[in-house]
Amino acid sequence: MGANGAILDQSQLTHIFRVFDQNDDGQISLAEFQTGLTDGGINVDAEKLQLLFKLSDTDSNGILDKGEFFKFFMNYTLCQTGDIWDLVACVIDLNGDNKIQEKEYKRAASIIGAEGLSKLQFNKMTREQFAAVLRTLK
């Protein structure tokens, strides 16, 4: 959200993307992601930062393109609760329906680590319910 609480528009997101994209190659590396978040006053420990990056990298190519970055940043602005697990749950909810669908759940399990998530009963949890489960795992 912008300073007035409005959802960011395309030009604002593009500007933020350019700030993060320090080498101007049209993509965001993990290092650029970390620097951009830190410079923006968002301090996340290295393990959770890597988790957010991997979950945001929906094509798993090791970088964030504009679409992936925009999706992450929109989730961040919509899910600013101060709780990293709420943000992780928002990033996992790819279609934005406030439910964790089976496809989203399986993707999260493969990235976060199946040992904890595979034991859960999957039943289309809400993002809030999923965030609560994540808090118990890490």
TrEMBL record:
<dbReference type="Pfam" id="PF13202">
    <property type="entry name" value="EF-hand_5"/>
</dbReference>
<dbReference type="GO" id="GO:0005509">
    <property type="term" value="F:calcium ion binding"/>
</dbReference>
<feature type="domain" description="EF-hand">
    <location>
        <begin position="80"/>
        <end position="115"/>
    </location>
</feature>
<dbReference type="InterPro" id="IPR011992">
    <property type="entry name" value="EF-hand-dom_pair"/>
</dbReference>
<keyword id="KW-0106">Calcium</keyword>
<feature type="domain" description="EF-hand">
    <location>
        <begin position="44"/>
        <end position="79"/>
    </location>
</feature>
<protein>
    <recommendedName>
        <fullName>EF-hand domain-containing protein</fullName>
    </recommendedName>
</protein>
<dbReference type="Pfam" id="PF13499">
    <property type="entry name" value="EF-hand_7"/>
</dbReference>
<feature type="domain" description="EF-hand">
    <location>
        <begin position="8"/>
        <end position="43"/>
    </location>
</feature>
<dbReference type="InterPro" id="IPR002048">
    <property type="entry name" value="EF_hand_dom"/>
</dbReference>
<dbReference type="InterPro" id="IPR018247">
    <property type="entry name" value="EF_Hand_1_Ca_BS"/>
</dbReference>
